[in-house]
Amino acid sequence: MDTENIKIQIKTFFGLETVLGEEIKKLGGRNVELKNRAVNCEGDLGFLYKINYSARTALKILVPIDEFKAYNETKYYDRLFKFEWDQFMDVNQTFAIDSTVNSERFSHSQFMTFKMKDAIVDYFQNKYGTRPSIETKSPDIKFHLHIDRELVTISLDSSGDALFKRGYRREQGEAPINEVLASGMLQLAGWDGKGNFLDPMCGSGTLLIEAAMIAMDLPAQLYRRRFAFQNWKNYDEDLFATIKQHRVDRIREFHGKIVGYDIDGRMLDAARTNIESAEMEEVIEVRRENFFDTKKDLFPLLMVFNPPYDERISINDDDFYKKIGDTFKTSYPNTLAWLISSDLDAPKKIGLRPSRKIKLFNGKLETRFLQYEMYEGTKKLHKLENKEE
Fold first, then answer.
1. What predicted TM-score, i.e. pTM, was given to this entire model?
2. Which InterPro entries does the UniProt record give (predicted)?
3. In this predicted model, what pLDDT tens digit does every residue of 257-284 receive, in sequence order?
4. What CATH superfamily classification does 179-219+234-374 receive?
């Protein structure tokens, strides 16, 4: 592998491509290209380590190592059997294969994965007289197979476990928001750690913790113990240690407040456990409050939250979204508020016109990320046209 000019593909969620692209540019990526749910770029080995450690909206970071066209299964296997797998792994290392297949010619993704596994094992058996083992849970080396019609791309997964697994979560809420999505929402909302932040329906605390990490400029993977690239043959331990130290040296103090409310005591216990795991007890405050009974007490204030979804948690109160709108109007003047909802009629129920609407996905749920600008007194909501992005 050329360690100076590595082609890199970074996976993300739909709607976060622009946010991720900006992150990658700031981190020093070259030839940054936005794709559907991904960003392509180039960089050296140190840059690959850096984005794994720092990029907040990256789900997985892949390094393509072979690309070819295959028109039948025999040609596919033959090409894979001839590939020099021992450049990238030793026979005594375990491996696993993730696959994405979009092809009428090769419609069965599991079968194509098995054929790739056979080719790798047969290559080592033929060359060394022994075979590497498959390990699906915690492999030493992870490959990614992507087939688009006839085009086959084989990549090394440099991350291992998906990068939303930050390492601080100990407790799950009933509908926890993914850490990568949470960070993307905060960046779309313009949160930069200046001012104060409120999540009025905080659940198990993911938005609060991600907001604190942005406010203090903590690297996204500060709490993570292992990356797949640490098992690669060209792993440079000293280089990675230097990159981590440089990144940690940038951590800054935060002088605002980050506050979470929830009406469910069990959720607050879960949030406190996660906040303690992230060592954020002195930065984040959570308390039992019904948002609809609160008034603004932080100035200036950015509010971002994830109300309960009908599809995942039943909402018995038909007026739930109307109450959100009423609370915005009566209790939170001069506030910028964002919420995410899979109820595409939520804006009508809230009764206020959102100044921005951004299409995102929370897992497989299509959602809208809605911005509301509240002004004091008789000033009406900004009369911006609905904007579908």
1. 0.93
2. DNA_methylase_N6_adenine_CS, RlmKL-like_Mtase, RlmKL-like_Mtase_CS, RlmL_1st, SAM-dependent_MTases_sf, THUMP_dom
3. 999 999 999 999 999 999 999 999 999 9
4. Vaccinia Virus protein VP39 (3.40.50.150)
